[in-house]
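Record 1 of the preview.
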Amino acid sequence: MQLLRTPDDRFTDLPGYAFTPHYQDIPVDGQDLRIHYVDEGPRDAPVVLMLHGEPSWSFLYRKVIDRVVAAGLRAVAPDLPGFGRSDKPASPDDYTYQRHVDWMRAFLDARELHDITLLCQDWGGLIGLRLVGEQPDRFARVIAANTFLPTAERPPSEAFLNWQRFSQVVAELPVGLIVERGSVRPMTDAVRAAYDAPFPDETFKAGARKFPLLVPTTADDPAVPANLAAWQGLERFTRPFLTVFADGDPITRGADRVLQARIPGAAGQPHTTLQRSGHFLQEDAGEELGDIVVAFMQR
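->
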């Protein structure tokens, strides 16, 4: 596996993201895959694990991290392999759904993270909810934000299919512009550039290109059996489970109601719909989301 590493100077002076970088190597195919992560707040405080999605990185959570740390909690936000400051496998064939679940499980094992509060959005939920279903005792509570665990039982939305097609045919994948268009509130040039920072050129975007194709949309998808098995775990998950969805996300609209109906821990929770927010609700309403996380943990 050929691994690419974005030069460090691409990550200088990013707005609102002055966090110290941390790295964890995990063994993959006889070599080390380096995963970058933010780790802020007291090391003995309750952990909020923030998993981002496609095509963003931990920069997306910067406003949430500030709120969580200010409340005395510990924020851990890794960059998925292929994104952010983490190593980027160069070939699209290196990216599979199962590999990313395995890589993130290995990261949690290496960092010895337990009693986790999971905050997950987009692909962060496809990976994170799999882990919750498979290892429920590792998680103290879950906040699912604009995400789902798909099993191809329902046809994908037209909005998702349009995104999937676009991601494969566009000559240059405009990552910063994608995040901007998936948000509702205005974005500065500096913030847009920060989303582009991990990708000096198209050779670094194999993961960003491949992820839309890895979402299970047909019954014969190789991820479907594992996701169905994970749902069995989720349907027995009685610890607190909160949904925080945006009012302006056409891709995941309605998935919150399914999660609330099927997961026992969702009963009686203060589920929230954020107003004037899009798919990247951390960008649109990061401070509000951070406050919701803190309040949920203090309940």
